[in-house]
Each structure stands twice: as C-alpha cells, then as structure tokens.
Records
---
Amino acid sequence: MKLKVYADRMSQPSRAVIIFCKVNGIDFEEIKVDISKGQQYSPEFRDINPMRNVPAIVDGKFKLFESHAILIYLACAFPGVADHWWAMAYFKIPLSVKYLLNTVLAPVFGLPLNPEAAAEGEELLSSSLYKIESIWLKGNGRFLLGGNQPSIADLSLACEIMQLEVLDEKDRARLLGPHKKVQQWVENTRNATRPHFDEVHNILFRAKERIQKQRSAEADSVSGRKTLLSKI
Amino acid sequence: MKLKVYADRMSQPSRAVIIFCKVNGIDFEEIKVDISKGQQYSPEFRDINPMRNVPAIVDGKFKLFESHAILIYLACAFPGVADHWWAMAYFKIPLSVKYLLNTVLAPVFGLPLNPEAAAEGEELLSSSLYKIESIWLKGNGRFLLGGNQPSIADLSLACEIMQLEVLDEKDRARLLGPHKKVQQWVENTRNATRPHFDEVHNILFRAKERIQKQRSAEADSVSGRKTLLSKI
C-alpha cells in the first residue's frame, strides 16, 4: 500500500515532508487537509492524527505525526534515502512562528496585531538566526554542521525560514539582511533539492502575491482617504 | 557494530530510551554521560551530539539525539520491535520540568527557589495531567488512545511523570492524587515493561531517599534552632 501524506502546503513542516519524499523518490499519495477550512478537525482526520495537525502519514499499519518524527521514519523505512540526510536528523530552534503570528498572520486568523509580542518574536527570531549562522554554519561547509550535502535538519529548517517570504519586503530585508550566510545556506538547500523545493513552495509565493496586493490596496485606500481629507 | 546509547539515568528521556532497548531485546552499550559532572560539554561528546544533551545514540554511521527521534529510529531500524509501540509514536505535553525546576531541583543547581514560577509550573502540570486523563486515557483501554499494549508515547510520558517521584510525599499526593487514571496508567506501563522499568528507575528512587534525608535533616535543624531560640 502506497504511503499516504496528509498535508497542507501552506504549513512549512508539511512542505518539508513532501519535498523529502520527492527528492528521495518515495512513492506517495498527497492528501490535502485544508487548514483554512478546518479540515484537520474532521472525524476522518482524527483517526489519522488525534493531535489534529499536519503533516501526518499512514504507511500500511503505521500512523505517525510531527514532521521531525516523520522525516526520521521515512529516512529509516525507505531504503533509497541517502545517508547524508542523517548527518543532522533532529534540530529545533525557535524561529518564525511568534513573529509571523503577530505580524502577517494575525489578521488572517481574525486576531488583533500585538506589537509587543511581535517585537519579542523578532528578538527571538534574530537571536536564532544569529545562532544558526555563528554555530551551525560556521566554517566553509555548504550545510549545517559543515556538511556538503543536506541533512533532514537542513531541509526542515530551510522550509521554516522560507515562511518569512510572506513578509513585507522591508521587514524581510531587515530580518534576513544581516544574515548572508543563512540566506546562502537556504539557497544551497534549495539548489540541492530542486526542482521540488520551488514546486512545493509555489503556494507560498502565490500567498505572498495575494498579501502584497492586499497591502497595496490598503495603502491606496489610506492615501486616497488622506487626499480626500486634505481636500475637505 | 553494537548500538551505543549515551545517557544519564537521572534524565527521564535517557531512561525511556534505555527501557525501550531492554524491553525490545535491542543489544546496546550504555555509555554514561554524567550531567552532574558536566560531561555533556566534553569535546568527545560534542562530536556525538552538538546539542550537548542526553540521550544520544550512535548506530554504525548514524548519530541521533532527542529521545522521541531516537525511539522512532529504534522502532524502525530494529526488526524485533513489536508493532504496538507505533500506536502513538510521538506525543509531547508540557509536564513536570518547570514545576520541578522551581521546587526540588533549584537548590541542586544552586538556583534560588521561585514560588511564583513554581505556582505557574504546578498549574501547567495539573492542566496537562487533566488532559491526559480526560482525552488520552478516556475509555477503558489500559494505555493512551485506548490501547491494550504500550506505545512509544506511553513509555516516554510515563518516564516523565515518574520524575515526580523526587517530590515531597505531600506535594506528590496533591499533584497526582486527583488523577487516579494517570496513576493506574503509569502502573500499567511499569507492569508492561518490567523488570526493566524498575531497574532503570532505581537511580531515581535512590535520589528520592537522599533528598528525603536532606529534608529531614533540614527540618531537624530548623526545629532545633526554634527550640534553642525559645530557650533564649
């Protein structure tokens, strides 16, 4: 029975699992669980993953959730996966969630923007980016821990950093700008996993376009109101 | 080459991995990394686990750290592991660390006790115990999700709850007392994995004895001072 991957490509851990399967030639069926429609709360999905989040997999009689756990399982269970993926199989560092939730994502979920939480999130994110650069990317290797081929941790973490793409260009430049090594490493990970990396991230680029259009429309409407006010 | 498990039995994720190996007949060599002596910071251990925490494993050319990741790897890589361990392979819920750190463990690390943080930790712990009981142990099953045999999550979580053994009896009764189902389920996990569960937890029981003796000595000394003061 073919591996089933329950995922929403809008979620970065979902993307990491899908890219991993594609890069390693793992035959799988992708089943979309649309988070924006709350499909993770359906009774069918509860039987797949009682934690009700994506990604989750079903491989024959095995069910598994949490992307790090899934990636380790896939690397272990599918003999075609190359050894270099194991060089760093588990790595977590607080990254973008808090910042993104309190900037771009709050309005999406109908939550108020919280500048204080956003500032805390930015501090955490910057400190993590600094750590990645100064500890995990020190030396001349192209990947984490000085490797020359990507590991599970490279893919996982690069997918998480890609989530920053939805930010306003100005904010993105402020956050990622000082970390040239991080930018280069995301690019290396992208190159090592292409064309799948770009294909799977397409949904994010489209979301970015939508958000940018919305921002321009809002800016126009504000400047329109200002012009109108100045004429009154 | 035999599997190497780098562990300190004083750490609950270390214990979960060791018990798992023993219960499943996995041939392994246990290498003690004494946290109380800071051995996780040695250059030798850095090469095993750059995150410098235990447990970590080396299996031939694979290095891996983080207990959940390790347990999934072991279940996958060793054919003798029974299927029931997969029923719930990944589960994390905030449990005892914050409470323990601000009650029993602070003096061990030379930190001041923080009653406010302890109260927050207790609230978190109680709410997690309530969730385990009302969601994950609902129904008549002996294990999480209604299973009749333990999964990786049962072992991991039961080992974490066992850490509460080092508490003062009064505190332990207050915290665990209202959760009879949780107590029964820890006992079920213990029975399903004996004699290894008890053998590996022995270090914790010995630590408990030491802490209790210390508490009695302190209480005696306080009451002695009070008697002396009342005589002055």
---
Amino acid sequence: MKNLLVAQSGGPTAAINATVAGVIMSAFTSGKVDNVWGAVNGIKGVLEERFVDLREKITGTVDLDTLCQTPAAALGSCRFKLKDPAVDPSQYEEIIRIFRKNEIAYFIYVGGNDSMDTVDKLAAFCAKNGIDDIKVIGAPKTVDNDLVGTDHCPGFGSAAKYIATTFAELERDCNVYDTKAVTIVEVMGRNAGWLTAASALARNNGAKGPNLIYLCEPAFSLDQFVADVRKQLETNDSVVVAISEGIKDANGVYISESVQSGAVDNFGHSYIAGSARVLEDVVRNQIGCKVRSIELNLMQRCAAHVASATDIQESKMLGLTACQLALDGQSGLMAAVERISSAPYQVQFKGIPVCEVSNKEKKVPADFINAEGNDVTDKMIEYLSPLIQGENQVVYENGIPKHIALY
Amino acid sequence: MKNLLVAQSGGPTAAINATVAGVIMSAFTSGKVDNVWGAVNGIKGVLEERFVDLREKITGTVDLDTLCQTPAAALGSCRFKLKDPAVDPSQYEEIIRIFRKNEIAYFIYVGGNDSMDTVDKLAAFCAKNGIDDIKVIGAPKTVDNDLVGTDHCPGFGSAAKYIATTFAELERDCNVYDTKAVTIVEVMGRNAGWLTAASALARNNGAKGPNLIYLCEPAFSLDQFVADVRKQLETNDSVVVAISEGIKDANGVYISESVQSGAVDNFGHSYIAGSARVLEDVVRNQIGCKVRSIELNLMQRCAAHVASATDIQESKMLGLTACQLALDGQSGLMAAVERISSAPYQVQFKGIPVCEVSNKEKKVPADFINAEGNDVTDKMIEYLSPLIQGENQVVYENGIPKHIALY
C-alpha cells in the first residue's frame, strides 16, 4: 500500500486550499496512491496522528471547486518548528515511525518559510538515514510573497486583487466630499512590501489610486512623510496613503514603536498601535486636517470571494506539480512557478531544491520603488499586473459564499 | 423647458449610485424631462450651481450598469444642513432662484436623515410660498438602516452582505490553529445595531458564525462581556465577537470613552481607540489569551464588488419611484420600500411624507435581540436574510471592478 499525506502550515491565505485541491486531483487520478489523507494542524497533527480521509471528504468536482473557494487552511495550520535533528532527532524518528505505520510513501507540505524549513529538515533526515521509501515535497504559500526560488507565491495574487479592489473602492469613498482629508491604509508586510505595492493596481483603469505608497524596504522618514502629504494636499482634497505595517526608520526601528512606545491607558497598560494609527496622529497633530486610519487586517488574506482566478489556478497547478514530483520519486523539492514572460503572461511549473528556499526572504528590489521612496515603478506594475487577472467564479448559497470544512 | 436635477448627500454606500441610475432611467424614458443634471456635492453644489449634464455622462446601458457597480456617491456628497427657514429663508430663496433660472422643475435628493431634513424643509418652503412649479422628492440611503418609514434602506443590504461574507471568511481564518484566541470585530453603527446584526448571516450555510454579537441598543456590561468570552473559550479554540462601534454602558457612555479616556502617547496627545480595540485590551488584561481586534471600517460601506443584487435592484427601483413621484406632480415625499412578506420575499415601492422620516431614528427592536443581549433572534434573521440575496454581476477590467466618474 502506498498512501499520501498532505498538510498545511503557516498563516492562512485565500489560495492554500486550491493547492490541496491540486494534490488531491493528482493523487486521485494517478492510479499510484491508495489512501489520501490530510493531517489536521500541520506537522503538529502529523505527530499526533490526526488524519482525515480525503476520499471521504472530497467526493466529486463540486467539493473540489468548493475547496478552491474556501479561504484559510481547510486542514488547519500550526506554527511549529521541528528541532535541529543534529541535537535531537526524536521528532523525525517519530514522524518516520508514524509514516511507516500508516504506509505513507508521500508527504506534501503546503506552507511558507517555516514549512519549507520542515520539508528541508525532514527530507535531509531521510536522505542521511537511507530512508528512500518516503518522499517529502513542499508547495509554496504566503500572502507576503517573500519566498525565494518561485516567481511569486500562491495566496499573494488573491490578496493583491483584494487590495487593488479595496483601494479603488476606498478612493471612490474618500473623494465624495470637497474638504481636505487624509486616509492612511495599512497593508500587511513586516519585512517585504509586495502587498502594499499592490495598492498601485487600483490605478489600472485610469483612476488616481493611492497618492502615496510607502513600502517597508526603504527607511521611512516622518518628516518626509509629512512633507509628502502636505504637498499632495495642495492639489487634492482627498489624499489616500498606502503603508506597509513594517515601515521602519533609518535605524531599523518600527515607526509604530519609535513614536508610540510610551502610550498607556487609564490602567497604566501600554498601547501598541499599528503604523497607520500612529501616522494618523502625526497628521492630526502636525497638519491638522481630517484624517482616518484603516487596517486591512485579516480580510486581505482571507477574502476568497474576490480571489484572483490566476492565483487559484496556479495554486492548483502547484499542488499537481508537488504531488507529481513525489510520485516520480523525488524528495526535498518545492514546487515553484517560473515566469517566462509578463506580456503575454506565461509561466511554467517545476521543482527546486527546498534547501535553496527555506529561511530566506525575498524583499522588493530597489528598482521596483521610485527614487523618492513614496511610490512604485513601472517594473513593479509589470510584475504585479498578471497576478490579479481573472475572477474566481465563486458559488454563493443563501447570500454568502459556500465553504467546505474538512475536519 | 422642464429640467430635472438629482443630487446625493451623506455617507457613501455601495448602492446610492444605483438610485441615481434609477432616476436617470425614469427621466430619460419619461418623455417629460428635457435636461437631466446632477448637482456635485449635494445641496452645497446646488447653491454653487455646480451641475453636470447626465445625458452627456451616461450615454447607454453599459454606463448605467457601470454606475450601479460604482461605490460611493458618483455625484459627490456633502454634510450640509440648511438653516431654519423661519429664522433665515435666504438659502431657500437662493435655491429657488437657481432652480427657476435653470428651469428645474424636479429635484430628487438621495440621502439619509439629514438629506431628508433638507427635502422636508425645501418642500415645505415651496408649499408655504405657493411655489408649485418645483417638485422636491427624496430617495432613502444609509448603510446604518436607521431611517423610519421604509422597511430598509438602500446600501444596507450590500453592507450586510459584505459583513456576512467577511465574518464567514474570518471564521475560517481564525479557526486554523488549535490554540485559544479571541477576535473582536467592530462594525459600523453608533446608535443602531442593524449592521452588527448582519454578522449572524455568516451562519447561513451551517457554520458557527460569531460566537457573540453585541449591538449598541442594550446597555453593554464589561463584566458580562468578559464572562461571556470566558464561557465561549471553555468549548471553543477560536472565539469571534461582533460588536457595534457604538456600544454604551448603562449610563449611555460609549465603552471606548469610559475605558480609555486617559490614554496618552509619548507626546502627551490623547488616543481615542475604537470599541473593539478597547475590548481587545480588556481581554488581554483580564483573560490573557491571544486576542486581536479588527475594524471593518469604510470597507463595509463601499465594497461594491460584493454588493447584494437585491439591494442594487431595489435601490434602482427607489430611484425610479422617486422620479415618477416628481413627474406625477408630487412633492415632499420620500420613496420607500414596504415589505409584503419575508418568505417568499415580496416588497412594494411607494411614496411617504418625508416629514414622517426626517430627524427620526429606527433602532433595533428588543425582540430582535436575545435575552442575554449577546446575540440576535430568529426574527432578526427573518428580517435580514432576504436583503443579502443575489450577487450583483460586477464587470472587472484589468483585474479590478470597473467604476465610472461623473465629475
């Protein structure tokens, strides 16, 4: 018997379930896999042997489609880092024992940086110990788009589409009055500004889009920010600003911490506000006009109702690729997207050594940001635009999108 | 010559432009109207004679459809209350002068409470002064759903659909880990809890939905809140709480103010956080588990990409009704929706005296809220459910929804 186990890990996205759907499609149709199981709550659930039978849960194409439009991790997730096998190999031995007991020949792990670290360590442990009856393959996922080795990450395109759509809508909303007002919108990303950059796509149909865009890569200057906003207010009633949650000053200190670390409430408890909230007060105190801050918060990563069809299809393809790599006897690889061209948009799917991916971070290159550090360049737009194309045809039931639960 | 002028006022919604589309459809097809103008920035734009020619801006059904999927007020808005005509009639005289100069026989004003006050005063001024060549009609709009005299308000159904969809997605997102966590989501509504109640519709397809729902009508007890959350945590890993921005204690003081009025930052400036942010700290300090607060902010009123088809269609019908009432020679009325039955959902459109509407507020009735004050009843669900049915078929271009600008 050769069984397959798939699991998910890290922060949820709108597309991670499509990757599981791809794994299932490949496993169900390969003729090479007996049981197809999902581990609940990632590698933690593997160690606790909490498995669900996916042949029972997914009985047809309608279930598969519903899985693809369900946000977050349908198999649950975890934040769990395996120990260094050189120090303590017991977790790895336990995983192998559980795999062998359940005749699991293929393990597909879908996740971000930490999950690829797990794939890397587990595959290396197998290789080192001559375990060649178990194949371990990773599939990428992260809204932050910060994985190296792949042109972009599943989940990012849908989050980018949500952000572009939301900025376009906010622009309409913020422009209705003929009085001066500043709206500061905080987008996810502590170390990489990709998601914040997606706000620029709100300009795709000729609208003005955000007046100013600050990613977290360049050093952020409060004085420059105030000067930039003042300048925009000279010619605009409404000024919309996109900022990364992780904007930092020249010393690498988060703006939210540098401005606000002494804030306390009635009970003496300290308040840590987001960077948009902090900048809201800066504008209020230094410029004095109407100002509002908005956090796109969890909505940007789970808004599956406005998912990018390109993202969902590619996520599925990466699941198919990951499963195929395992069935072909490969191990220690991550399925990845390689861009052939942007116009026309063309990609291919492949496996790359996961050791080249784990514990690295892909930041926004300098030439994707303008010289003033307050907008993105055409290179960024060329990179981002294909990723939000197409609308996933979401099925609604009783007025809300239909979701599927796997456990 | 008989010309028609339409204008919008108050806070933006996803449906207010559909009402303008309805007015335009009726005016263009009536054979009774020469020029069809829109005033920019509401009654303020009327006084400043800032008109756009809608026959130029809307040249076909594609434009009309695009207008219906454009959020916020395409003609701009204002927050402008006319003076009491008994004290100072000059603004009214000026409006009439401008109307006569431009041969405007019909004035349709789309908005909420304040806008209906304007319609009421202007129509009364005309009636009192024997001005019968100018007809003034209101059309309702408000995400808050707090207008009396109409079963519900355009814009509310789309905001409710966004809220139900978002809570369903957040529930998936918040449930991926097997650790205890509380998520507090703040929904618009300072005096009426309708929008917060819509979070319950996230349960429409069998999901758990928010564990607790606090509207702003009943007095909010911090102790009860903490006890409720503790109890939910006994049986759930993830506890999602919906609260109105306007929750108040038994003395009518906003919770955000009562808990937090002493908070200051490094510079001694005071922080006023939202009610969810305040409760986040209460949970952190008194319960100690992982906790996060989310504000749905402007997104809930401008997310036209997930608009309710029922809402958009009804909003259009109210525009048609308002225009027809004016063309029929009526004045001082507001177009309204009357519900005939909930199952099957059936409504009719009519005109009601605007004096019965202005300066009143429709709160959530006591029997729509459960005895514990932490959820809604079946009566609320029966009322809300029909309003989010159907998906407006939004046209996308370059990956984002297509919008139209009228000025």
